[in-house]
Amino acid sequence: MLSAPRVIIIGGGASGTLLACHLLREPLPDLRVTLIEPRDELGPGIAFSSPSSNHLLNVAAANMGAFADEPRHFWHWLVRNGMLPASGDAEPFFFAPRALYGTYLRSLVEPHLTGDDRPGRLSIVKGTCVDVAERPSGVEVRLEDGTSVLGHVAVLATGHEEPRQDGCHVSPWVSPSVAGVDPDATVLILGTGLTMVDYVLSLLDVQHRGPIVAMSRRGLLPQAHRRVKPLIIDAADVPFGTDVSYFMHWLRETIAWAQERGDDWRSVIDGVRPHTQRIWQSFSESSKRRFLTHARAWWDVHRHRMPPEVDARIKAALATDRVQLIAAKVVATEPRGDGARVRYRRRGARQEEVLDVDHIVSCTGIVTNPSETKNPLLRALFASGRARVDPLCIGLDVTTDGALIDRDGHPSSRLFAVGPVTRAAFWEIVAVPDIRTQCARLARRILNDTAASLAATRP
């Protein structure tokens, strides 16, 4: 029987590392946290592993602190380590390279690591988790190599799943030069959001000469950040529990009112941000479906914006035809030599067009069916019924405090999840400011529940 709190976090990217930070922040000398991660590095994950200095955070440094009660923690870390540009000022509107944020996350947990000469509270297990079994007094996490790790609770922090990479499909998170993309190749990017923006920057950085085509159903680009102050919106003024049409009407009316006063629409979107998860949770299932079908693209490009300097590069590439943006739906894709022939239909058109490409890069975001995941742990949990896909089919079905819901609709007291895999319950749970708040709440619940459980078993 375990005599001290033991928490197992499956996934050592940003979500898992942020949860570890919140757990280890508590002055509990007996607490032990185990992080299971197959990659060599702890902290960056997919989101913050890019080595390119041109891949910037999409949130200003002043709001990227790991802790909700210290939003400028990352900013202060940059100051202490001399990593700010010469133009940095006391009110930072600065978008740092993503790799720096990965370094920052590692710096927060490294002092807690168990080493040859120190008994730390954090242990790293390099490996792939393939299953989790619930026991009367805890959980047993099984690894691909046949070993197991025991704990009181396990938290899934598996983050974003990498898209298909077979045939002519290449990963948006691998440099084009590393992936073997010929400088003269025709590249089709599916999706026109922030992941597409990063991949276009990667192509421009390696002096790509071939055609670059970015395609999505609406052909919308992310808007650019501007230096604005969020509008203070009282919860009493937010139309919780209405349908999507009414909510979007209210949002447009609020933006129009703010602009009449001389404010920017960004102030309204940022002012709504503290309420977005509650808004999502107040929607009916049918309203959520309508949002995903009709409003998601509009919301995403206004809510998830790009740094001004990135916006300038993308606009310049579009203006000089180095990049072509098409609003269209892919009808079919078939192999053609080493590439593919793509048939598509432009928005509002009936006639199909054909595009021969050498590479396809999927930047569409949400996995359309999580039950078809390649992740062995999720497959095992679905097969055993200890987890299920949410009704919208965009993530794990979890409670509002992150507990996994099993096949029969029962929440677990020992299996939890954080980060993007919980998007069905929260929707806005991909950015650090949202994930850190979720991690703070879950850490408190885990520590309280574990303490109560241990107290009940002591003689």
Automatic annotation (TrEMBL):
PROSITE patterns, per database record: PROKAR_LIPOPROTEIN
Domain FAD-dependent urate hydroxylase HpyO/Asp monooxygenase CreE-like FAD/NAD(P)-binding: 8-160
Domain of life (superkingdom): Bacteria
First and last residue of the signal peptide: none
InterPro entries recorded: FAD/NAD-bd_sf, HpyO/CreE_NAD-binding, L-asp_N-monooxygenase_NS-form
Pfam families to which the protein is assigned, alphabetical: NAD_binding_9
PANTHER family, per the entry: BLR0577 PROTEIN
Protein name: Putative NAD(P)/FAD-binding protein YdhS
Organism field: Chelatococcus composti
